[in-house]
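agent> Task received from the user: take the single chain below, predict its 3D structure, and emit structure tokens. No templates, no multimer pairing.
agent> Plan: (1) validate residues, (2) run structure prediction, (3) serialize to tokens, (4) report one or two observations.
agent> Step 1 OK, no nonstandard residues flagged.
tool_call: predict_structure(input=
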Amino acid sequence: MSTKTAISRLTGDGLRLETQVGSGHTLVLDGGDGDTGARPAELIGAALAGCTAMDVISILRKKRQAFTGYEVRVTAQQMEASPHAFTDCLVVHVVDGPVNPAALARAIELSATKYCSVGSTLASGGVRLRYAYLI
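)
tool_result: status=success, residues=135
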């Protein structure tokens, strides 16, 4: 079993936090009033985008797919009422270059069903995850 850690420290009068994660990197988080860092809830989409992107990129490279550009766009919906839980995420993989659509679809499927720990965690909590791609 793997353990991940994070420590957030208040660094000002408002809600600005410096968060150090187990790998030693530091993130700045803040609320809307201070606006000196990302909102904590924004990191859900960022984590999902990064996790699935790393999976799909690795799989496409193993399949020797010659892509020239790659990005993931995540749009996540939250409930209006507290605790503002996430209900739906749309994950769109945008790939430039001569990629076989079947290879890309399979890479996305493997990420969604087997490899992406962030997506798996969200889905197990009732968040509906939808995937698409553009070439």
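agent> Step 4: summary for the user.
The beta strands are 6-10, 17-21, 26-29, 69-78, 86-96, 128-134.
agent> Done.
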